[in-house]
Specification:
It is elongated, with a radius of gyration of 28 Å. 66% of the residues lie in helices and 0% in strands. 28% of the residues are buried. The protein has 18 helices and no strands. The chain is mainly alpha-helical.
């Protein structure tokens, strides 16, 4: 309800005319009429007299409902998340920026926009404004928020952002303010809960640890002080084999759920490596597996899949997000366009893989 409708309702409840209200407040009847049609708002000096006259609070008079505002903010964040979780960062930004114009002090909106800014920076590293915004919003949250979850999210983004900005020492100091992995939420809940809750908490802890380990194996390469890479290309391929073996170890029945996308990426990277060194058998084998996991992940994203593995049996589909709008099948197809694959391009296997992927390739849907 608008302020105009509120003031009209309050006036009528007291059987009062616009002229009578104007006379009490020593203003013109035209001013009251403009309020009630939402053409104007009263002077701030008239808020207290209006509240006293109608026996209402200023929040009620001005339609300021904190709980309703928070619900609106959560709705905005949820709507934006539908887009940024599928790689549509510009669309998400538009929703969040509109929300912040309405609720400029909302730290929930600031947190969501901080993540979008950081991922836009990762997608466009030369666009300094995204990195600057991620840092500004993260620092704002640390200054004003008392919510540990929100603060820890800000610290996570700030550590990466400071590092990208060349402020490594600042990032390190901030990282040391965080708790150790061994006393994380997941590990503590798994240790203290019993029965069904304890069992599910232990599964959640193992799932989180597996996700971390899989991610780290996929991103373990770094440059040493000497300027050399920590691992050769051949060693990186061996590490990806370990990542693939690890996931197969935990999902012995082949229902990898979310980890289909991890396996798709690992096999994509392996196919690219073996293509560069001219090994046709391994190139095609990994392309075939990348295509299989790409298609299965797309199906999983649409239908879900309850795990049957010994460790994770009964676990329901997890919430996931994509780092770009292309789905996994499209990513594999894009890789296959590289000239590195020319030496196998005319083979029957290559053609069959491409045909299978083409049936599923596209953009992630926003749901």
């Amino acid at each position: 309800m608008s302020f105009g409708k509120t003031i009209r309702r309050l006036r009528r409840e007291r059987d009062m005319t616009q002229d009578e209200l104007a006379e009490i407040l020593s203003i013109s009847p035209q001013a009251v009429s403009r309020w009630e049609t939402d053409a104007a708002m009263p002077d701030i000096s008239l808020i207290a007299p209006l509240c006293n006259l109608f026996h209402v609070t200023a929040d009620s008079l001005l339609e300021i409902d904190v709980s309703r505002q928070q619900e609106e903010i959560w709705k905005i964040c949820s709507e934006a998340s539908k887009y940024d979780s599928r790689g549509y960062y510009s669309e998400s930004r538009q929703i969040l920026e509109e929300g912040m114009r309405r609720y400029p002090d909302s730290l929930d909106l600031a947190e969501s926009l901080m993540f979008v800014s950081y991922w836009q920076h990762r997608a466009s590293p030369t666009e300094q404004s995204y990195l600057d915004e991620a840092i500004r919003l993260g620092e704002k949250i640390l200054e004003k928020s008392t919510n540990n979850y929100t603060r820890h999210s800000a610290i996570k983004v700030l550590c990466s952002s400071y590092s990208d900005a060349g402020e490594t020492n600042k990032a390190i100091r901030l990282a040391y303010t965080m708790p150790l992995m061994s006393i994380s939420q997941e590990s503590l809940l798994a240790a203290i809960q019993k029965g069904d809750d304890g069992y599910r908490a232990k599964q959640c802890e193992m799932y989180t640890l597996l996700q971390i380990l899989s991610n780290e194996l996929a991103n373990i390469q770094m440059t040493l002080d000497s300027g050399e890479k920590a691992y050769t290309e051949e060693e990186c391929a061996a590490l990806r084999d370990k990542q693939i073996a690890l996931l197969n170890l935990f999902y012995e029945n082949g229902d990898f759920s979310f980890y289909h996308t991890h396996l798709c990426e690992a096999h994509r990277e392996q196919a690219a490596y073996y293509a560069r060194i001219g090994n046709s058998e391994q190139t095609l084998s990994h392309l075939e597996k990348a295509a299989e996991h790409a298609i299965k992940f797309i199906i999983y994203s649409e239908r879900g899949e309850e795990s049957t593995s010994l460790v994770f049996r009964g676990m329901l589909p997890c919430i996931w997000s994509a780092d770009e709008t292309d789905n996994d099948a499209a990513k594999v197809l894009n890789l296959m366009e590289s000239s590195d694959f020319d030496f196998v391009r005319e083979t029957e296997s290559f053609g069959k893989i491409k045909a299978r992927l083409s049936e599923h390739a596209g953009k992630w849907e926003v749901k």
